[in-house]
Write a structure and sequence with these properties.
five-stranded mixed β-sheet; elongated; alpha/beta; 270 residues; Nucleotidyltransferase, domain 5
């Protein structure tokens, strides 16, 4: 429009006719989006300040109920320009798992079960434990305690167990990201350990470790107020010795895990 008026010496009226623009629009002062949408911006900011977790449609319907004249397209454009979008939780895609029977192994290191637990120190700091048991004699193979236990940490845990005790034929776990990571899966395949994943939302398919977790929580985590991770590790260390060598188990005929493993070894040798 300005090009026609200045470079072709056309009148404003003629130039407006050429491009189909009214003269009122030509003389009207151009407003930025911020100026034009000032009312929408103020309404959204005021609403989000009071309700920070409301999403777009909840905000729009609230404004509409209050008599706001703006349609959803305009409000959504301003909503996005202000970057008020709530992060949407992505659906966790888990491969289809087949149900596996919960069989009692016939020897040591045939099937191990593992699971994570969570608790807090006295001052509120969260920590995790990674528990491993041998399903054959319910022995506590390892309990790792730390604020964070990643897939690389799992590899270090099982590398120590490989050197000191040996690895199981099968490791039964849930579908947590640590156990399902490509790095950990590749390590288990390299060392001949098969991972058996339970079906999502079916902790009963890993019943041995779930029962162990309940005992560990009742006799350690819920019984003491810990001020540091070192205290958790110290109490857990001595509790594991008692659990494996002194505490009788109903499912083992009131034998300890250590005694049950010793008897099974003697039977095999004879």
């Amino acid at each position: 429009m300005l090009h026609l008026v200045e470079n072709h010496s056309l009148s404003v009226q003629r130039s407006c006719q050429c491009i189909g623009l009214s003269r009122a629009a030509y003389y009207r002062k151009t407003k930025s989006n911020t100026e034009r949408d000032a009312e929408v911006i103020n309404a959204l900011n005021e609403l989000i300040n009071r309700h920070s977790r409301w999403g777009f449609w909840k905000c729009f319907n609230f404004l509409k109920a209050k008599g706001s004249p703006w349609n959803h397209k305009r409000v959504y454009r301003v909503y996005c320009e202000l970057r008020l979008n709530q992060k949407r939780r992505a659906k966790k895609r888990i491969p289809k798992r087949e149900r596996q029977p919960l069989l009692v192994p016939q020897r040591l290191n045939q099937i191990w079960s593992a699971d994570f637990m969570s608790d807090a120190l006295l001052f509120g700091s969260r920590f995790r434990t990674f528990n491993v048991i041998d399903d054959f004699n319910r022995e506590s193979v390892a309990i790792e305690v730390d604020t964070s236990i990643t897939a690389k940490r799992l590899i270090r845990i099982f590398e120590v167990l490989r050197l000191t005790r040996g690895l199981p034929d099968v490791l039964r776990v849930d579908n947590g990201p640590e156990c399902a990571s490509g790095e950990f899966v590749a390590w288990t395949e390299e060392h001949g350990m098969i991972i058996q994943y339970i079906q999502p939302g079916e902790p009963n398919q890993n019943a041995f470790i779930e029962r162990f977790n309940r005992t560990y929580r009742e006799e350690v985590l819920s019984l003491y107020l810990f001020e540091s991770l070192d205290e958790v590790r110290e109490v857990t260390y001595w509790w594991r010795i008692t659990y494996n060598e002194e505490r009788p188990h109903d499912s083992l005929g009131f034998l300890t895990p250590a005694k049950y493993a010793e008897n099974s070894t003697l039977q095999l040798s004879t």
